[in-house]
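Run log, item B.
One chain of 168 residues. Sequence copied directly from the ordering sheet:
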Amino acid sequence: MKLYLIRHGIAADGSENISDKDRPLTREGVRKFRRVVEGFIRLDPPIDLIFSSPFMRARQTADILADHIDAAQRYPITVQIAESLAPPDDLQAFLSKVVAINYAARGVAAIGHEPILSRWIATLCGQGHGQFEMKKGAIAGIELAGDDPFSGELFMLAPPALLRLIAG
């Protein structure tokens, strides 16, 4: 199964009036992430299910991805909230949920935050070693091992600028 780890788009800065969990995407964040998804869809990713952190900016990012996949694949795709994608994260709980819910999925997308996603990439692909940079809107693709879904091979690490370029 392919696992796509996706960092949320550009969000509003934190302030005294809004909690971190409630920070929405900015207009620029929405615009840029739509272009990222247009490029990503051109790569024809096999995504059957989307998980999102419960934080507003991640949910909005997941909704943009779901809308584009619906239009491109002509079938609805669901977004499920996964508390394990938000601080404090829990990779084992997340992967157990993925395997239990949709063991036959070709691909799953997970929308989350830094430094969680970089740490997950290092854990799944590098035995916890190595550093990865996930800019806002970046997408990493990991092929999970069939016999051990808790390890995998990184096959893609695309910064948002590259995906916008692919979009044309």
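Observations after the first pass:
- The radius of gyration is 15 Å.
- Residues 140 and 157 are 4 Å apart (CA to CA).
Flagged for discussion on Thursday.
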